[in-house]
Specification:
Elements lengths: L6 H14 L3 H6 L2 H8 L6 H16 L6 H5 L6 H12 L8 H10 L10 H12 L2 H5 L1 H14 L18 H4 L17 E10 L4 E6 L10 E2 L12 H5 L9 E9 L4 E10 L8 E4 L10 H12 L29 H7 L11
Parallel strand pairs: 1-5
Antiparallel strand pairs: 2-3, 2-6, 4-5
Helix pairs in contact: 6-10, 7-8, 7-10
Length: about 350
């Protein structure tokens, strides 16, 4: 859970997770949907799928491998995780290199190449630290000491060099460049993708949901039906061609969400039908908190469920409800980031060329 996620964010998730799945066998026996629901909101959902598959592999083998090659063969376990498990759990002489350790090692050895090109040199230097007799004698303590040194002393912005145990041996400090290491290449602006998702309720107040494919981004998570995400704006006609039913869709707000490699802007449309006849499954609004919704979809649900257009008056005389506000053209038009800031609750006007 701590990979790419802060301790403060993880603690409540961890406590709930280990209460629900108290050991490897319990996790292995649980349905994947339950695991994803417990993970919902943490992001990086491939971790949950890999953790579940790893638990099943360990349960089938009767326990964890006790060597680095065996650990690396487990689903979702790479060099860092294998080294961390090996050193901390089994006393194997290995140095797990996370972001904290990369920073400590880059400064200690004054490795000036920018990341990620510096990673091989950093791993080699970290291994040389692990070869020290004292480190080899206590690999678990050494690994955790490196983590804590980077987290509390050799911090990113203001390293506390005066209290560092490696003060005199730090080449980066001697060169006056410690605070600048490790160097990073300037990040390129993230591209923007656009999508439209649909909030569809039936007469009983149930919402239509669907499950994403098991593999890929947000794999296996539950979502509102919607369009693919793309760089080009969606016209109204294109957007409603992906709608779960042929209804008159009302604007229901807009959500902006950042992924690692792109920014996403979602326009939400809402409608209501006496009976929903569409692919997917229905859940009561009050039960959505228990579904395996990603952080993105939780934003969408929060926005759409609170938006006036998603709560039309009860239908009279049967049939589907008709909106007095027909869907306007230009869904996803214009600069999506400007639209997200300037008009977060309305569908944009037609894009001008």
């Amino acid at each position: 859970m701590l990979q790419q996620t802060t301790v403060a964010a993880v603690i409540p998730y961890y406590e709930r997770f280990v209460t629900r799945f108290p050991n490897t066998n319990a996790l292995a026996a649980a349905p994947l949907d339950d695991v994803l629901a417990a993970w919902a909101g943490l992001g990086y959902y491939a971790r949950a799928r890999n953790l579940h598959a790893c638990a099943q592999a360990v349960a089938a083998a009767g326990g964890f491998p006790r060597d680095l090659d065996g650990l690396r063969a487990l689903p979702g376990v790479g060099e860092y995780t294998a080294a961390a498990i090996g050193a901390i759990a089994f006393g194997i002489s290995a140095v797990p290199v996370d972001g904290n350790v990369e920073r400590v090692v880059a400064r200690l050895f004054a490795i000036g190449a920018p990341m990620p090109a510096a990673k091989p040199a950093i791993r080699e230097a970290a291994a040389s630290l692990g070869a020290d007799p004292q480190a080899r004698a206590r690999p678990s303590d050494f690994a955790q000491a490196l983590f804590d040194l980077g987290a509390t002393v050799c911090t990113p912005a203001a390293p506390a060099c005066g209290i560092c145990p490696w003060l005199t041996g730090c080449a980066g400090r001697r060169a006056g460049i410690a605070a600048d290491l490790p160097r990073k290449v300037a990040k390129q602006p993230r591209p923007v993708r656009l999508g439209v998702h649909f909030w569809l309720c039936d007469a009983d107040g149930q919402v239509l949901l669907r499950r994403r494919p098991r593999h890929g981004l947000l794999g296996g998570m539950v979502e509102l039906p919607g369009t693919p995400w793309r760089a080009e704006p969606w016209s109204a006609a294109e957007a409603v061609s992906h709608a779960p039913m042929a209804l008159e869709w009302r604007p229901a707000g807009q959500v902006r969400h950042g992924f690692t490699h792109f920014e996403l802007v979602i326009d939400l449309l809402a409608a209501r039908a006496r009976v929903v006849e569409a692919e997917g499954f229905l859940r009561p609004v009050e039960a959505l908190a228990g579904e395996a919704l990603s952080s993105l979809m939780r934003k969408c649900v929060s926005m759409a469920s609170a938006y006036p257009s998603s709560r039309p008056p009860p239908a009279r005389g049967g049939g589907e409800e008709r909106s007095p506000l027909p869907l306007r053209e230009g869904v996803g038009g214009g600069d999506p980031l400007d639209r997200a800031r300037a008009r977060p609750h309305h569908l944009p006007a037609r894009r001008r060329h």
